[in-house]
Specification:
- With about 475 residues, this protein is α/β, with parallel strands linked by helices.
- It contains 16 helices and 19 strands.
- Helix 7 links the parallel strand 13 (about 225-230) and strand 14 (about 245).
- It is globular and about 70 Å long.
- The structure holds zinc ion.
Length: about 475
């Protein structure tokens, strides 16, 4: 009886929800980036990589009605509705929009100052095929929260945003980061930002176990998740405290530092040295992986930022969007890195890849994010595509890598009923690329149109609107 009643109510709500109210009315500033905006769109004869890890399917028809995927299947079984705007998908591939979870609206300008670039970054993320993102910590206060709401209301072009509050950290040297003063303070900071509209939290390298426990309890009480780029707290300790996600693969784990003092960060380098020495098949690592998997702790791969620290790697894509000073600054950093052949990253970068593979093989949920920080050079949008390429280099198949960058992110965010894969009924968040990423992963860079909730955006117009000015706003 209860079930039937619930079913009736849900059906009623669904009817209201699908009555065309899903698309915001876009401002003129957003309209200039839109190339497809029809009530019904059919993409025909297209290859589909659906985001589940299943093999690519050839000769598919995908029908978009309003903000939803109305149908997706073999051309023979899916009819093109009369009056639909038809896009010929010949030679093209349709992927789900990327869902990435270690993004930022700030960039390292230098001297410990992170410039607040939400205006250009939201456009670049969308241009790169990102339709949902979580910011992985913020040093701008309200900007992440405001952008989330502005995008949702059609006033800005960008992905759907899971807006992270300012970092939860202990005493630290960042001038844009607060220092917590104990557990009650951590609880208060979480409560304040949740009330202000933050939907996600990130702990950082100097937080204590008590502060982290209090922050997790408060966030969970409000139905929100907590991730961490940790150091003072080990991965195993954080898992026991109920953390939901850990950033930077195993590069921030201090679990194996021999003389680790509780609540003290021994330095990122000390932790990374133990990771370099770690046997992926040995019991200490396997035990940690079991602990994380058993506690449902997701792990975020951020290979893109580590690649910029590693000598001998290609110049990252997208630098031409930067203001000249920032481009030159990164090019100098790149040359310094290239000249440092004793860098620990020569061995650490492939090691991180191997450990992330081992985590997945043990049943862990690996998600992806780009982390546009470090010494620069991680350019939103471009780096999200690069991230998928690096996951393939790490040993995942192209469709597995795409799953990590789409459905896995949606699953972690609890949005997998709505986004993350191409299936009838989900929101039409789609990326149309030329070529075939299932065969040549670099084809993820060939974005022709990015659909967000059924509306098609032109990546060229989005990028041209910021080219040469990223660094200013
Ligand atoms: Zn970060």
């Amino acid at each position: 009886m209860t079930a039937r009643f619930t079913g009736f109510v849900l059906a009623g709500m669904l009817a209201v929800a699908t009555a065309g109210a899903q698309r915001p009315s876009f401002s003129d500033a957003v309209r200039r980036f839109i190339t497809v905006d029809a009530p019904v769109v059919a993409i025909t004869n297209v290859r589909v990589i659906d985001g589940t890890g299943a093999p690519a399917r050839e000769a598919q028809t995908v029908v978009i009605r309003d903000d939803r995927i109305a149908a997706a299947g073999d051309a023979a079984s899916v009819e093109v509705p009369a009056g639909a705007e038809v896009i010929d998908g010949t030679g093209r591939t349709l992927l789900p929009g990327l869902v990435m979870v270690h993004e930022h609206f700030y960039y390292p300008n230098g001297s410990g100052v992170y410039a607040q670039l939400g205006e250009s970054f939201t456009r670049l993320y969308l241009a790169g095929g990102v339709t949902t993102l979580r910011t992985g910590g913020n040093v701008n206060g309200f900007m992440d929260l405001n952008l989330k709401s502005l995008v949702a209301r059609g006033q800005k072009a960008g992905p759907a945003i899971d807006a992270t509050a300012p970092y939860l950290n202990g005493p630290n040297s960042f001038v844009q980061m607060r220092a917590l003063e104990g557990a009650a303070d951590a609880r208060r900071q979480v409560g304040y930002w949740a009330d202000m509209g933050a939907t996600s939290f990130k702990a950082y390298m100097q937080i204590t176990r008590d502060e982290l426990a209090a922050a997790i309890a408060e966030a969970h009480a409000r139905g929100m998740k907590v991730t961490g780029h940790l150091c003072s707290v080990t991965y195993a300790e954080a898992a026991a405290l109920g953390i939901d996600n850990l950033e930077h693969g195993f590069a921030a784990a201090t679990d194996f530092v021999a003389d680790k003092q509780p609540d003290q960060c021994p330095g990122q380098r000390a932790g990374q040295q133990t990771i370099l020495d770690l046997d992926p098949d040995g019991e200490p690592f396997r035990a940690l992986v079991r602990t994380l998997v058993d506690a449902d702790v997701a792990l975020t791969s951020t290979l893109t930022v580590f690649e910029t620290f590693t000598p001998g790697r290609p110049m990252p894509p997208g630098l031409d969007v930067l203001v000249p000073e920032l481009r030159e600054q990164f090019e100098r950093a790149y040359q310094r890195t290239a000249g440092n052949q004793s860098s620990r990253y020569v061995a650490l970068f492939p090691k991180l890849m191997a450990l992330e593979r081992a985590f997945v093989e043990a049943g862990g949920l690996l998600v992806a994010g780009t982390d546009p920080t470090g010494s620069g050079g991680v350019i939103p949008g471009y780096s999200n595509q690069r991230m998928i390429e690096l996951l393939v280099e790490a040993g995942f198949t192209p469709v597995e890598a795409i799953r990590i960058g789409t459905l896995n992110g949606a699953t972690y965010l609890g949005r997998d009923a709505t986004v993350g894969s191409i299936v009838a009924g989900k929101q039409a968040d789609l990326v149309l690329v030329t070529g075939n990423p299932a065969a040549t992963i670099g084809d993820v860079r060939n974005v022709e149109t990015v659909f967000r909730a059924g509306v098609g955006f032109d990546p060229v117009r989005l990028i041209d609107s910021v080219r040469g000015r990223v660094g200013l706003w």
